[in-house]
Batch of 2 targets.
Target 1
Amino acid sequence: MEEESGEELGLDRSTPKDFHFYHMDLYDSEDRLHLFPEENTRMRKVVQAEMANESRGAGDGKAQRDLQEEVDELVHLYGLEDDHELGDEFVDENIPRTGVSEYPPYMMKRRDPAREQRDWRLSGEAAEAEDLGFGGWGSAGQCQDLREAYRYTHGRASEEYECYVIPEEEDEEEAADVFCVTCKTPIRAFQKVFDEHKEHEVIPLNEALESAKDEIHKNMYKLEKQIIEMENFANHLEEVFITVEENFGKQEQNFESHYNEILETLAQKYEEKIQALGEKKKEKLEALYGQLVSCGENLDTCKELMETIEEMCHEEKVDFIKDAVAMADRLGKFLKTKTDVEISAQPEFEDQTLDFSDVEQLMGSINTIPATGSSVRVCWSLYSDDTVESYQLSYRPVQDSSPGTDQAEFTVTVKETYCSVTNLVPNTQYEFWVTAHNRAGPSPSSERAVYMTAPSPPIIKTKEIRSCEEAVLICWESGNLNPVDSYTVELTQAESPEASGVTESVVGIPTCESVVQLQPGRSYIIYVRALNMGGPSVRSEPATVHTIGSYFRLNKDTCHPWLTISEDGLTAVRSERRTPARELSPSDTHFTRCVAVMGNLIPVRGHHYWEVEVDEHLDYRVGVAFADVRKQEDLGANCLSWCMRHTFASSRHKYEFLHNRTTPDIRITVPPKKIGILLDYEHSKLSFFNVDLSQHLYTFSCQLHEFVHPCFSLEKPGCLKVHNGISMPKHVTFY
Amino acid sequence: MALKQISSNKCFGGLQKVFEHDSVELNCKMKFAVYLPPKAETGKCPALYWLSGLTCTEQNFISKSGYHQSASEHGLVVIAPDTSPHCFLIGGCNIKGEDESWDFGTGAGFYVDATEDPWKTNYRMYSYVTEELPQLINANFPVDPQRMSIFGHSMGGHGALICALKNPGKYKSVSAFAPICNPVLCPWGKKAFSGYLGTDQSKWKAYDATHLVKSYPGSQLDILIDQGKDDQFLLDGQLLPDNFIAACTEKKIPVVFRLQEGYDHSYYFIATFITDHIRHHAKYLNA
């Protein structure tokens, strides 16, 4: 049949080869085979028309000439393009149109579908050994031609295509190119027919490759997910690790100070008792000594008398009688005085009772941590054996510089060697010194010890909290006049307060703000503490954060003088009256030309979604801008801002999407009342939606090398309201 | 109805097939292209119908528009019938005047059901597209009959708009590339309608998108239209989108109309924005 058609059309044999050379498209050779029949149909039409025209004997020489030109043109055209849509070629207007009109309708022969069918069989199972020897088209030869054509037209090194020069049949015998699913091995095509794979299921090798690749990709995806999970878990563990360390530190400190207290108290008691014993000893010894002395005196007197009497015995009779009478008197008197031979002091000491009750009390109070900003526990000890009746503890705040004002000095009198001082000013250094007092007077004062009171708790600025689904930015006031060392942020999840023994802490924050990573779709309660040498403050008042959508407020520091921002930071109003422009400071944080205000979006990448409620007749601009956009220009007039602009004039709504002063030409038939804005850092896109209709309006592609903030501008009096904390609606997720 | 597969090619994980069958409405053999995304192997997918423009067959769209990747990702079955059926040439269909102009007759069915002789036997593309083809597709392919959308280019854009406007609720969404929005007032439309529908202009309005919008009672439609600014036919006054937009603004039918700088009427223009259109439909079909 092909031969028939070949004879009919002299052009047939030659033109296909031409087509090979001029076809510079991406189709496989199989597809190309498909297209030939149609083109040949058209070609046939051309020639048929030629013949028909001749047979009609069209006397219109002009028509013939035109036709010839047209045929040439068509050959040229069909050679270059497989383009059937004549609409495309209107630029070369006349030729195709009038060309077609000349052709009588041509009867499609039945064999065309048949031929198409055969061609399809060829293209389908090229691997099959059948039909390779198929005549008419001489497919093997055809394919060879095609491959050579590829070499020529694509101008590649022939080395790459060496293998294609070998005829098809031999190729297939050497390479495995189908896959036996049953045996899970690649086999050669003919094996399917002849070998043990006869009964097995076979699929083309490409398919098998594809499915194997898919499997691997799936597993890779799972592995990637797992990697991310484990990394997150490791980070979490680190945080908990730090918290454990901190808590340990606190406990250690506390235990140490209490233990020291107890030891000191015990030492004190020991001293006291020893002292008392010593005194007792002295008393006894003194008493005994006294006795000893009087004994000695007695002895002396006795001995003296004895000597006198002995002397007397050696005297003359007359003297002896005189002295003897005197001595007898003396002796008599002496012997009358009683000699006290009772020992005045007993050698034994009483048993000492030890009173440890206050030590016990101290041991019982070991669990309280004395960490407040307004009290301090001071201890001291005595290094000598002196008697002490009381101690006087004096203290005053430490002066930094100015010697002028003398800070008030306070004094406390105690009997113990420790004292809790209260009513102190937090976060302040105090110096303490002690003097001991007894009957004789005060001792010289001790060296001055410096203690620092713990700071007051900070105050979270709840109105300035900004958050998104993955993080929150909190800022706070220090709560202390003087600087502290650092801050700690503590957060717990709000849903399960009992179960949440887990409090995450972020420690060592140097400034009064912090960005904390969170999980999406949860609620958190956040506290802040201040920390200095004296220890941590108590927790601040809590703040609550919900990680749904993005939260931000309009920044009053940026708003144009003609705009008023509501208390909750979500509504901007431009009133009818024009307030006279205030004298603004040179720092250009305020918009001066565009009556606009910026929102404070959390500086975290990812995606953010918010909505703006507007009036249909309001002239406004809504969009985003970099923080350092020039405030003297309109939104969208420079390359640092993008916005959607609506103007309503003469009952017509006009919409523009401005960036760098340019806008695409877009018409919107239903004016939106609520505009959804999606900011996607990941894909560098900013999209606008009509929320009520779930209709997508426009998307900018924007290079966001830094963080941007939402911007809103009112070009006429009116108001617009921002809605926050909204989860991205489903229709938005398509963008 | 017996379907005969003409071709099948794997593309982006799915299959681009072409089938042929005997059409009842058109009284001849019809071809259509259907793309089955990978998702169709495991379940029913929504269906998206593409209507081609003047002189096009099912081949233009599937070869040149580059829609496969997007259709594969969103899991949509895309059907494109042959708008210039060779069958218009068979069956005694040696209709005089059929091949006289490329914008009337073969390849220019205008998606109407012709009422005039000699066209009324074969030129019933409106019924084919809205009735016969969907029934055929629903019966033979893994599609969800409740989720269907339609779009097209030029004359096909006109076809998509009128099919959606004349059948409120049948299509979940509609979009168009450089559609003929107001055929009653443009040279193409006047020529086609007078030939197919006769001289009674009231019958013409039933196939004119701008007129249909004015009396559209039905459910919310979200229409996306892309138009090349350098399109010769726009400048020739054949397309008339302003009229359509004005009517939609009046009746509050949501339309986003984008005039694309530098683009013309060709398939290069279609290929540039086809992804946006497929995503537009996926939003409603996959909701």
Target 2
Amino acid sequence: MSVASTAAYAARRAAQKERVRILYRRALKDTLNWAVHRHLFYEDASNLRERFDANKHVEDLNTIDRLIADGEANYNKWRHPDPYIVPWAPGGSKFTRNPTPPSGIEIVYNYGREDND
Amino acid sequence: MAAVGSALLKHLRLRVQVQAVPRNPSYALSFSAIRRRFFSEDVRGSFLDKSEVADRVISVVKNFQKVTPNANFQSDLGLDSLDTVEIVMALEEEFGFEIPDNEADKINSINLAVDFIASHPQAK
């Protein structure tokens, strides 16, 4: 077993912490998508938090990896088919709707006043 | 109004205590014991004023964590990394935002959050 002072151990733990944070973030957003009413969201969010906290004190690296993999599989199973995305974010409805025109192009406002030869 | 009510209450309590006297074996001892019980505040108990209770509760909650503009979530406010995630999500909802995952991990203090939101053109 690797002792807590090796760099590889620390790097692995840091990577695991990163994965856990991203997983929790996505799971929370998913819960917000699924819960129609806000009070249901609060209950589900606290249940999710308790499930994460139950495994907080696990020390063994391989167990942690397996728990994270299980959590990600669970998340994939429960993903919402139509998640809420902020309109101007990628995947939203306003994304690249009105991009800024490239420089050098200008709009000439002379509709009806052009002289057609 | 409250004073009248509490005075009435004390009077009623007096009555009940007097009727419990005959159960005691020696009258002299019981009488002085009851007199002592009447006049001790901690035995009888008194209800606190409700506004005073509210003020004290609020001051306790306010002094619990030092919420300053420079507070780091984890070291100053004593929050977990999962709590940080929750806070970032709440900020996202509040400002109508979308923060990509890799940048959301870097927000560890109030300063960073303020800078990030202020520098984003679409924060409402």
